[in-house]
């Protein structure tokens, strides 16, 4: 679809002839899209320089470990559908792009495929192994 560093092919393995809706628009970043209103809470932004320090409020709510993987606790909450939103440092923060609280916003790094299922419609899968907790 052209917006990630790794191509994301679309495959319809069923014989129903369906294609993605012509109104479908893939986005890889939060933007000021007409149908998507963003609200940035500046009170959540950190004032760290370079990488976030240990006492940074962003790191206190960070769901990643030092290697950029979801923590075991975050995975447990996600399995129970209790995780909610992944909060990361944002453009409002003063820290660098190397901050460990910036993971999902760096884009897709694994091979994904959008595919059609008979029972559930369109879905996403990968043909490669993804380590538990890895987002990229």
Overview of the molecule:
InterPro entries: EHMT1/EHMT2 (IPR043550), Pre-SET_dom (IPR007728), SET_dom_sf (IPR046341). With 136 residues, the chain is mostly loops. It has 2 helices and 3 strands. It has helices spanning 57-60, 72-79; strands spanning 10-11, 113-117, 121-125. The protein has a 3-stranded mixed beta sheet, with no helix packed on it. It starts with 9 loop residues before the first strand and ends in an 11-residue tail after the last strand. The mean pLDDT is 79.
Task: Output the keywords.
136 residues, little secondary structure, three-stranded mixed beta sheet, 2 helices, 3 strands, elongated
Helix and strand content put the structural class at: little secondary structure
Q: Biggest β-sheet: count, sense, barrel?
A: 3 strands, mixed
**Helix amount:** under 10%
User: Count of DSSP helices?
Assistant: 2
| Succession of helices and strands | EHHEE
Taking pLDDT < 50 over at least 5 consecutive residues as the criterion, the unreliable ranges are none
GO molecular function, one term: protein-lysine N-methyltransferase activity
GO cellular component, one term: nucleus
Keywords: Methyltransferase, S-adenosyl-L-methionine, Transferase
InterPro entries: EHMT1/EHMT2, Pre-SET_dom, SET_dom_sf
């Amino acid at each position: 679809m052209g917006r990630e560093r790794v191509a994301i092919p679309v495959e319809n393995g069923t014989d129903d002839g369906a294609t993605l809706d012509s109104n479908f628009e893939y986005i890889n970043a939060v933007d000021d899209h007409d149908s998507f209103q963003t609200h940035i809470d500046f009170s959540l932004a950190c004032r760290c320089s370079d990488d976030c320090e240990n006492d940074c409020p962003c790191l206190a709510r960070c769901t990643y470990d030092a290697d950029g993987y979801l923590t075991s606790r975050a995975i447990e909450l996600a399995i129970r559908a209790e995780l909610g939103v992944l909060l990361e440092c944002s453009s409002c923060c003063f820290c660098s792009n190397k901050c460990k609280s910036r993971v999902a916003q760096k884009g897709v790094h694994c091979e994904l495929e959008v595919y059609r299922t008979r029972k559930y419609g369109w879905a996403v899968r990968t043909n490669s192994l993804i380590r538990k907790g890895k987002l990229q």
